[in-house]
Structure formats: C-alpha cells, structure tokens
Amino acid sequence: MSQPFVSVLVSSYNYAHYLGKALDSVLAQSYAQFELIVVDDGSTDHSLALARAVALRDGRVRVLTHADGGNHGLAATMRLGLAHCRGEYVAFLESDDIWHADCLRERVETVRRTGADIVLNDIFPLFMPGAAVSWYLGYVPRVMRWHAARSHDGRDAYTAQTAFLLENRIPTFSCAMIAAPLLRGLSLQPPVPHWLDWWLWTQAAAQARFAYVPRALTGWRQHGTSLHRAISPGVYLADYARMGRAQRRIHLRTLLRRLHWGWAIFLCLPSTLRIGVRLALPLFRSGPRRVLHMLRERLRPTRRPREETSVPLPPGHKARSRQA
Description:
By secondary structure, the chain is α/β, with parallel strands linked by helices.
C-alpha cells in the first residue's frame, strides 16, 4: 500500500449498530489516498467482529485492540491508534457518525490551498430518540457561522486561540482533520476525561492555523445515549472550572505576550465568574426563554418517535438500510 496522506482514526466501543455505516462512508470516499484504522476499546457487542470482517475485504483497513482486550477509555484508545497512523494528517470519525463521499477530498484540497494545520467542515444532524434538538440548533449553527466568518466563507486560514478559551468550537471529532505532527505534540491526558476533544483543540489553538469547509460533510448522530447528555449541571460546572485552570497553564503567557489583556484577565478570574460569563453569553444571543428551553431539553430528554430523522443527506451520500 502506498504512503497515505490521511489516516482515518475510528475509536470503536459498543456501537455495532452504527459502525458498519461509519466504515462504509469512509471506504466510499472519492479521495483515495487514505488508510483506515479502527481501534476497538473492549466492545462487548459484535463491533470487533464487524470491523475485522471489513478489514478482510479491504486492505486499507487495519483493526487494533488494547493488549489485554479491555476497555481503557477514549484517550488511551486514541493514543494506540495514533501510534499506528502513517498519514500526514489524521481525520477522526466517531463510530456512530458518517461522512459525505467528498469529505476527505474537500478537506485535503482545503489543506493544500491554505496550508492549515486543522481543517473542519459543516455538519448535518442525525436525530435519534431523546435527542436534544434545541440544544443542537442553538450550538452547531452558531459555531459554524463563526468559523465561516473567520475563514471568509472557507477562503482563508485563520487563528482561533481565544475562541476556544470560552467553549469548544469544534462540535464533534468527526468533522475535523489535524496535522499528525501537531497532534502528536499535544497532551492526551485531559483534566476532564469526557472533554478530550475540547482539551485537544484548546491546546492546538495556541499554535495552529485553522481552515473551514462550508459544506455539510459530516453526519453527527444525536441520541439519548450520547456522552454529552449524561452530565449533570453540578458536574458540568465543576468540570468547566477544572478546564479553565488547565487552560490558564497553557495560554496565559502567550496571551500576555500577544497583548490579549481581556482574555488574560478572564483566565485569571475565579472559576465561578468564568462560568458566569460562559453561561451569560447565550442569554444575549438567544434570550432567556430559549436558553431555558434548551437546558430543560438537554437535561430531561423529550420522547420522540423511534425512527431516526435527519436533514436531507447531501448529494453523494447513499442512504443504507439500518443494520440489525
């Protein structure tokens, strides 16, 4: 096999029902210079057998497991996969998500045009029963509009250090691709284990140039078992404070050197005030009634039909029947 430009890294744990669709969407890419690495994190369903069956019929696929076959969490699973990646860039795909057929091609073209370290693209949702629809609609379109504005609708690379101090502006690993040398230089030991994505991006933002593809090329599955739905308000507030302290260690000196006084002061505020700023901003964007509705829906999922719903799939993605 020739040297791949992109290593696609899939961390798999007990999503056999969706994994086949995820892997098929990678193997159907119009861009061919990639390898696909699936790391199983001790799944107890048939995810591992499914991944191995795919690897048997396509030489671009490699399947890895931890030495003891156990469950070690996302950070350890990502470290294992990264150690085997040969590409110049690493593209993540969560095992319950899918890609448009042109996803890698458009990302690679954007990297070559802009020289960016990180490239991300817009998202289309796949809503499952219990999905926090209002939360999604209040978050994803807003951060994607921000990336579109910073990039002049995808034409230019841009920096984003201060933006990631307040919140994670890359909604899902599945919409992002990062230069492998940059990724290998980041810490994979987050202060908050379930915020590994924000931890990686906030580190990378201190030195990286971003680029944005203004097309919905990633299908992000939203359902009641998604990790972000399982966090109580009290735990969220404590986690946000812990993340802020870690960000201060990474960013404060650089912010002072670049004369970002306001952000330097923000990082030095007590955690309760930082959280207050974070929670107050949606009030100005959406108003208190909409914010309360989004919080209520996220914390107490509404019952929805059993069938999966989504926005129409972009051209180039072939719908498949759901796996048994």
